[in-house]
Amino acid sequence: MNNFIYDTPTRVYFGKDEELKVGSIIKTYDIKKVLLHFGGSSAEKSGLLGRVRASLKDAGLSFVELGGVVPNPELSLVREGIALCQKEGVDFVLAVGGGSVMDSAKDIANGVANPDIDVWDFSLGKAAPKATLKKGCILTLAAAGSEMSNSCVISDSTQHEKRGYGSPFNRMNFAIENPELTYTVPSYQTACGAVDIAMHTIERYFMPGDDTYLTDAVAEAVVKSVMKAGADAYAHPDDYTARANMMWASSLAHNGLTDCGRVFQLTVHQFEHEVSALYPKVAHGAGLAALWCSWARFVYKANVPRWLQFAHNIWNLDINFEHPDETILKAIDMQEAYYKSLSMPVSLSELGVKADDLETLADKCSRGKTRTLDGYMKLGYKEILAIYKMAL
Ligand code: NZQ
Ligand code: ZN
Hints:
Elements: E1 11-14, H1 22-27, E2 33-38, H2 42-45, H3 48-58, E3 62-66, H4 75-88, E4 92-97, H5 99-113, H6 120-124, E5 134-139, E6 151-156, E7 161-166, E8 174-177, H7 187-205, H8 213-235, H9 240-253, H10 267-278, H11 284-299, H12 304-313, H13 324-341, H14 358-365, E9 373-374, E10 378-379, H15 381-391
Parallel strand pairs: 1-8, 2-3, 2-4, 4-5, 5-8
Antiparallel strand pairs: 6-7, 9-10
This protein binds 5,6-dihydroxy-NADP and zinc ion (ZN).
């Protein structure tokens, strides 16, 4: 097992009605003004924003609002948010929404606290935040795991760029998780969430690491739980048990717990980010579903025992020791069938990706043929392009 630091400082308030406490929770941080940050229309329509405003007012907190975060959140709105916070003297950012709102909030908090650095330089890896504002979230969608993760993913659609960066300053101070708030999530988005959550941990599971049988067991439980909960929530949107297990899986799958002792990188995510950068209408989870099986079929030979463990422990398959490939390919087929059962795409063409764009995607994913994605198999431009082609 590799050395590791496990540091997940986010305080979680989980369960029914917990969002009603938001004002009194923020009050404990001794702050002056809150930015209430949200997305399109869902939180207004459900009445959640009304309850949040009332709670902030009851706690005597002053606040300003900035809505309009789009899926695959935009740098332009982050810049607007930074300017607003500076003008208004905001020192706390509250995100009400899914991964896009939370990431936009994180970037705004980092931008305000580091006025001498251009915020896009964090995404480009040219600079790292040295401070941040305090921030919290009310989760309305179980998917990205941003509520407890140390990452922030921002797009600049004017340049077709989507970049994620990790930093300890990207951790939320608190996350309010009421599963009932996700009853209104449409079935497609619910399916995207189930894919994304499972993928955060499956990706970690297939990065190099030895003798991490405790981490493996936690990872396997998270993946199996979210696949069950995702299917149940997809079939019955107001199934509390399903929504609750899915929400908690969202947080655990991406907060660092499931890579303790292992190398950490999210490889298929890198492939996907290029797809949704070039095709901003593509939902992140759908992009992952379209890519994962092709990636899996391409790389599995680099670590057959690990893939057999996946086949046995996740898909309950008996191992064919004479023909291990058969067992592994069957497990990948079962994963694919699961995606199909949730009406998720299993190819890029289903998402409208054009063959002519595959070289551009591979070029961007390999950062102009300069970077490799290092797992059990090293993937450079040539291999990345081959996987995109398989996935078409
Ligand atoms: O904008 P509104 O009207 O709120 O609608 C949203 C949006 O259209 C809707 N929605 C959210 N909660 C809802 C709801 N609709 C009905 N009822 C509710 N309760 O769902 C749509 C998608 O929202 P979005 O926030 O974009 O989805 P998600 O949570 O999947 O976040 C995706 C973003 O997170 C990034 C992705 O790349 C993508 O940009 N990621 C962030 C990560 C992180 N920071 O750790 C890790 C992930 O791997 C991911 O890359
Ligand atoms: Zn993801």
